[in-house]
Amino acid sequence: MMPRLYVPSLAPGARTAALPPDEADHVRRVLRARVGSPVRVFDGRGAEREARVDSLEGRTVTVVLGDAVAPARECRVSVTLGVAVLKGEKTDAVVRDAVMMGVAALQPMLTDRSDLPPAAVARGTRLDRWRRIAVASAKQCGRAVVPEVFAPSSLPECLARHRRDAGVVLVEPSSEGLARARRPVPRAPASALVLVGPEGGWTRGEVDAAVASGCAAVTLGPRTLRADAVPVVALGVLWHYWGELIV
Amino acid sequence: MMPRLYVPSLAPGARTAALPPDEADHVRRVLRARVGSPVRVFDGRGAEREARVDSLEGRTVTVVLGDAVAPARECRVSVTLGVAVLKGEKTDAVVRDAVMMGVAALQPMLTDRSDLPPAAVARGTRLDRWRRIAVASAKQCGRAVVPEVFAPSSLPECLARHRRDAGVVLVEPSSEGLARARRPVPRAPASALVLVGPEGGWTRGEVDAAVASGCAAVTLGPRTLRADAVPVVALGVLWHYWGELIV
Fold it and tell me: In the CATH scheme, what is the homologous superfamily, with its name and number, of domain A78-241?
């Protein structure tokens, strides 16, 4: 794959662009690009252009922009993944995988059984890292959209904040399967909120709150999946259910 | 979840069992169990029993066996995952996730674009580690079946060796989607071979060989998934397609 650079300041009609400092660094140190090297640049909002390195002076790298190119198609269902912050660095992998799977946004959450002091999350270093991971994952998977990673919230805040046509809350294997969920998952929603709990699961009150706000409670089968694997499996299954996997 | 111990020598009518050395170690050092502590034991072939620690003498731990218990249901489709050995430790995660997702067996493969010297794999330390990971993952996800991990083979060997009612070869996003695959994936096979390639993908000849031997070539949508994420996503989608996610 051609090197893809994230240039949020990219203007629609521009003929040249200056790379942000981290992308300029990457071009010089990792790609070891020269004047004339072909790259692609994308704005994180869906636009992607062919480009060539035009100058490398000190820490400044500029590119000459070429034709628009078609990035990987975005999903028809705009999914916000509401996901409990997991122990250690596991949320890093969740962010990386969820962006690769095509979510529109991520809402990290501190839930009743989240095993983390809110202060540890609130300091913001995690949020900054998750946002950098979202950019890196978008580059790698071919998306020209960088999903927004919101500041951590509670589940009630998440339910109140994110407007959606459909909601899905992933629950333990003892609950019912997707195809038999008491409240069926809509077949063709324009937007959806998909909720995944922490290692210790949701409390009963949390599941009730999600269901009361319109979410279908579904499970991914009889085996116990690791909490950090649930988002990627759930998104794969939902894409299939929603017909997204027909290219 | 109650601690689950792997005792391959477990006999159907037995009243007691001696734990293998590593499980005895685990019971003493990690679980810090005492005489009378409740555990569960499973044989790796589908049987699971309630049990209580009966004696801890030196390195020997015995348990008294109780009633049979119902482990997590196995999938109706017996899937062998044929997966190219990936760089570094990435195959470890693939084995762990594939067992969690319920495969019946794993066939590691060295393919045309595998970036590994066959000697590095043949020495057997990797195979031993994968087998240990399969046991650990079965314990964690609630399965009483430990999938077999075969010694690495080539793709032609894999295609010749594993009898199946259906075959699926996962290919790049430029190929066709599951629902439009030229050769449709059968709806209710008793067994299936699911093939996943290495970071650099399959060669054209490999895809042709898989298709010639009856595999449907399918993709998981327009984005580029990391090679180590493909098995877990593909299995989730296939379970949904095959109706396995109805508990």
Answer: SPOUT methyltransferase, trefoil knot domain (3.40.1280.10)
